[in-house]
Amino acid sequence: MDELHHLSATDALRAFRARRLSPVELTEAVIARAERTEPVVNALCHRFFDEALRQAKLAERRYAGQGEPPRPLEGLPTVVKEDEPVAGQPWTQGSLRHRDTVAEHTSVFVQRLLDAGVIVHARSTASEFASAAFTHSALWGVTRNPWNPEFSPGGSSGGSGAALAAGSTVLATGSDTAGSIRVPASFSGVVGFKPPHGRVPVDPPYHLDTYVHSGVLGRTVADVALTQNVVAGPHPGDVGSLRPRHVLPGPAELGRDLRGTRIALSEDLGDWVVDPVVRRNTREYGERLRAAGAHVEEVGLLVPRARVLRAAAIHFHHGFGAAVAAEDRAPGAHLTPYARAFARWAAENAADAGVLDGLAIESDLYRPVGELFERFDALVCPTAATSGLVAGEDYLDHGPEIDGERLGHYLESLLALPFNIMNRCPVLAVPSGIAGNGVPTGVQIVGRPFDDTTPFLVGAAVERRPRWPEVMT
């Protein structure tokens, strides 16, 4: 068995049921690991360790046959991203403005996890109002990548990705509006899933924003599938939630080969500057797919970068970006420079375009991908174009330098963003390798609209478990 703090959720549940491991032992191991690594990683903004141990003892009794039977995720230590409301807990959203805010309700998404038996031992850090692809804030400081603390674990769900990689949780939640689950999964060497819009209920008013998704991160494809099956399904409070509930295959069904599966491979979506090591690791991932029996074809797909950013700016300006700008106008607001810059960027780049103008661009962007899905079962491409974003860097008015080119905005380094626009496509982010700086790289497996199962079958078939970082303290 792996070190307890890096045990997968599926392995932990198997050990719980066989009475070879207690939820108390696992929770104690995760807490001890967090206390060792948090001085460096800084991924946990609120801790509930005493209450977690009390819940772990109750879970232990369930596995011992005392009282109610164990629930699907009984006894698994889980961090919940700080932007999700949980009744009675701080709802800080990475913002000084909400440092004293306490949630009065629990989101449907988190309530389903609680009802399934998870133990929320901590809340994970995020960028302010989940508005950036990196994770630091004036409220909590800088969250660092356990693989190399000079770099960010990504964002906005960076605390969740970092906690998983560091070993200070077993499961984690995230939200994804421009890659905020998949980018941290990539930089942290873990697995994250952006479900198709409507698969997982979202709190209002963002349940009607098609770019917005709630989802989960884990150490393995099976862990994420297991948890996704808990959170997915319709809810009367979300008019966009999908019926019927989609059920993903269990661990025993996920390990099959890929004979007959047709996969399109793109290193750069035709128009994105991509680090050579990210390209190399993407090609090598394609070779692993071929070895598993898939037909893999490198395709000349073109998803124009400028058009993606234009569509995103219009969308954000009329919704999420406007909400951030409104927070900034509130009395006593002290927003971070990057949050202000996000709202300003959206307004400036939307110019005078209306919602319908943005929808027309979004439709044009999807057409070549939709045509691709007439011939292929899935598309594989990088999640992020860069091998790392510098920890604590605001990236104001510039993006990272990639392959000798300085990008104008960090969003240009996120190949995840197009699939918030093509939001009915399920996308599984999985590790593809390691860059020279020690930071993991990743690919995303994009499925046809509402075909959640295929990305999981593809990802599980070639999965390799990493050797987790030590985190020098």
UniProtKB/TrEMBL annotation:
Q: Which Gene3D superfamilies match?
A: Amidase signature (AS) domain
Q: Which residues form a coiled coil?
A: none
What keywords are annotated for this sequence in UniProt?
Hydrolase, Ligase, Transferase
Domain spans labelled Amidase: 25-453
> Which superkingdom is the protein from?
Bacteria
The answer to keyword Nuclease applying to this record is no
What GO MF annotations does this protein's record show?
A: amidase activity; asparaginyl-tRNA synthase (glutamine-hydrolyzing) activity; glutaminyl-tRNA synthase (glutamine-hydrolyzing) activity; transferase activity
Any Pfam family the entry gives:
Amidase
Q: Which family does it belong to?
A: Belongs to the amidase family.
User: Which InterPro entries does this chain map to?
Assistant: Amidase, Amidase_CS, Amidase_dom, AS_sf
Q: Which PROSITE patterns match?
A: AMIDASES (PS00571)
Q: What is its EC number?
A: 3.5.1.4, 6.3.5.6, 6.3.5.7
Kindly indicate whether the keyword Transferase belongs to this entry.
yes
Protein name (Swiss-Prot/TrEMBL): Amidase/aspartyl-tRNA(Asn)/glutamyl-tRNA(Gln) amidotransferase subunit A
